[in-house]
Amino acid sequence: MPPTSLFQRAPAPISNVCNTPDCLATSAFIKQYVNFNVDPCSDFFEYSCGAWINASRTKEKGTTRNSSKDVAKHNILALVDIMETSYDDFIAKHLKSNADGFNVAEQADTDRANFQKAKDFYNTCMNPERSVAEVYPDIAYLRNTLMGNHTTPEDVPAQLGHVLAFLTRSGVSSIVDASVTRNDENHDYNMVLFNPPKVPTEDIESIEAAVTNTLGQNNQTQQVIKASHDANVQLWSQNRVKSAIETYVGVQEQLQNITETLNKLPDADTITSRNISSLTSTSKLIDWLTYVSDLVNPEYLTNPTSTVYSTQQLTLALEKLIGSLTWNELQDYFTVRFVMDRYTNAMFYVSTPSDIVVSANVTSQQIECANQVGINLYNNVGRYFALETIGGINEKNEVDQLIGELQTSWLNHIPGTVWLDAATKARAVEKINALKPRAAINMIHPDWTNPGFIQSYYQNYSIDTSSYYKTISNYNAWNTDRQWKSLGDKVLNEQWSDEGYSADVNAFYDPQLNQFELPEGILQRIFYDAKFPKYLNYGGIGSVIGHELTHALDNKGRLFNSSGYREDWWTPFSNEAFQNRSQCFIEQYNKDFIVNRSTGEKIQIDGENTLGENIADSGGLTIALTAYREFVAKLNQPEPLLPELENLTQEKLFFIGYSIPRCEYYDDQLTDYNPQDEHPPWSIRVKNSLINSAEFAKTFNCPAGSPMNPHKSDEDRCVIW
């Protein structure tokens, strides 16, 4: 017997239908996703995403795809569109609405210069003239100057310090991952944080190709041979290439083992140090003082606010690794690591065109170069991306208003949380009240509405229009100096992420700042559209906002107070209640799995690892629905329904709006699926979030015991917020 469709189950409203062009377009948009032949009470994910999943474009070439990737494609095409036009044409024809509040007329010359800087980067990237010869001076400096063969044992620690600093300033990850981040004990300042090394995934074929093409003697042109000779870089025989690769692969495997071991180490067993002297006292083979000195201003080392955070387990593991290698092996390892970074980032060659077609009129090189502009000049091109895809200051204010409504709604409902005692409720309200949302555009540093601030921000970064290699090298050095040489200076108590990217579809919460960020890349159609009815926007971007708000009080966020410092502010009563309710989520998700259809293997979901995301999904959905109902109450009338979808009530469309941005399809091999990811597959996240929502079951009239309403009573649902 076929499932009962939603149209069969629901009565048909006869009035209050919107028939404007925008509503007709929105209705057509919904139909691209929803499969009305599926019973929403049996499988809501298949119901709300089924038409999209079964579309030929979703399953083409057997790739993994999701709604967010569709948005990312839209975003990258917008970046290409911006980079392929002139400044005057952009201002005249490309604005979403207007440039009100962005100081275009007041600072036209500066704005034009900023736009041209982004264009210069893009055009340099588009230039196919790249040569391996450009990498040889850096290799010579690394091998001959920093790691010359005439090294005494006494010189090794300082030389390795210089080598690691050179690699850091070049943007190359190697045996250590050191970064500048907020001081967890004093938020007025940043600190140096040493993390376990990040080991990139590299197949042996790519390593062999990179090393052979760069340093191998065979099949090199006379131009390359001359360039290597002029730089005093000796090219390697085939056996020498093979030996260097074996050393490199062996070291990378050891580094991966170190990282995996340290990541499993309980916090209670970690021995930490918070200053440079304690770091250097545990290391005999690497002079970390030399490393830090090469990167910071001299006065930082004697500054009382200076903090260098590391663990003894990390430094001792690196000591053991370094001690097992000869100097020549270290030379080869660092050389190959440098070459692999430059090769992977296509700095001295134009990458092979991708066979993935994003648009018939856009080349893969345009996509790659627009990507690079979006990453490396984010605080420049982000301004123009926002103007083209979101609008002016009025559109930003609309997003801020939506966030304010959700934040206020949750604040008003926390006091009614029955399982929290009064003391914990008061602190929870204090924290959410202090939480700082940042959305749509950066108005902190640099303020995107002020071209002068953007110009000042990038004034020390120079683009070499004759060389993409030098352009990226200059960026790496500028970006490192910008962060490391500011150590010791007071920092703002709020920030817009340095690691942002216009095309990126994401949002995130920072517990140390008690701030969440909703960048411009996610404020796009599917998640949000100013022309959508509010029920779709509340279901889409509203649930994302609610998700990030909930992270402030999830299993990790709740360990920080309203000022962003670690504090156990929960009473024993409320803490026990939170743990009990968390266990419900853990057990629920532990029962779920995803199937590799090519092998039949069932891959279990780890409810413990994914707990924070699962709590935030549930809380975000509840916050968004509650806020939408409060919006309708203030409106004092229901929103119009959509044409040809009159059987879908406003709240049914809210839940459809929640699911559509989370549509996802995995191919038979589960390409790109990572079992260690703290985010479960969207099909499971959507299913469980809705199963845990009593309001969903009521809205769709799902019978008790049906797959989407399996609980005997509401008390059986997993609910925290």
From TrEMBL:
PANTHER family: NEPRILYSIN METALLOPEPTIDASE FAMILY, ZINC METALLOPROTEASE FAMILY M13 NEPRILYSIN-RELATED. This is Neprilysin isoform X2. GO terms for biological process: protein processing. PROSITE patterns: NEPRILYSIN (PS51885). SUPFAM superfamilies: Metalloproteases ('zincins'), catalytic domain. Its cofactor is Zn(2+). Keywords: Hydrolase, Metal-binding, Metalloprotease, Protease, Zinc. The keyword Hydrolase applies. Residues 506-713 form the Peptidase M13 C-terminal domain. Pfam families: Peptidase_M13, Peptidase_M13_N. The keyword Glycosyltransferase does not apply. GO terms for cellular component: plasma membrane. GO terms for molecular function: metal ion binding; metalloendopeptidase activity. Residues 40-438 form the Peptidase M13 N-terminal domain. InterPro entries: MetalloPept_cat_dom_sf, Peptidase_M13, Peptidase_M13_C, Peptidase_M13_dom_2, Peptidase_M13_N.
